[in-house]
Amino acid sequence: MCSVFIAIITIGGSILALVILGIIIIGIIRAAKTGGLSKIEKDSRAEETRMIQDIYNALPKMEERIEALETILIERGHQNR
Fold first, then answer.
1. Average pLDDT over all residues of the chain
2. Contacts of 7 (CB under 8 A, 6+ apart)
3. Buried b (16+ CB within 10 A) or exposed e, 56-71
4. Is residue 12 a contact partner of residue 5, using CB atoms and an 8 Å limit?
5. What pLDDT is attached to residue 81?
6. What HEC string does the chain produce?
7. pTM to 2 decimals?
8. Cβ atoms < 10 Å from Cβ of 30
9. Which candidate in 7, 25, 37, 69 could, as Cys together with 41 as Cys, close a disulfide (CB 3.0–4.6 Å)?
């Protein structure tokens, strides 16, 4: 009787191990096909990249504006004296 339980547990454990291994292999294949990211995640990252590039490209203009404002404030300070 005890050997029957051991056989059932062994067979059940083997089937469970095969199912888990199959799920892991399927997951690895799907991740390799899609590059690990879903289409929504790829679109989101692309949008974030565009936004960061826009900000980076706008920084020199902002720097020029700040320098112009500083110049204006300095000139007004000299005029008030």
1. 89
2. none
3. eeeeeeeeeeeeeeee
4. no
5. 66
6. CHHHHHHHHHHHHHHHHHHHHHHHHHHHHHHHHHCCCCHHHHHHHHHHHHHHHHHHHHHHHHHHHHHHHHHHHHHHHHHHC
7. 0.45
8. 10
9. 37
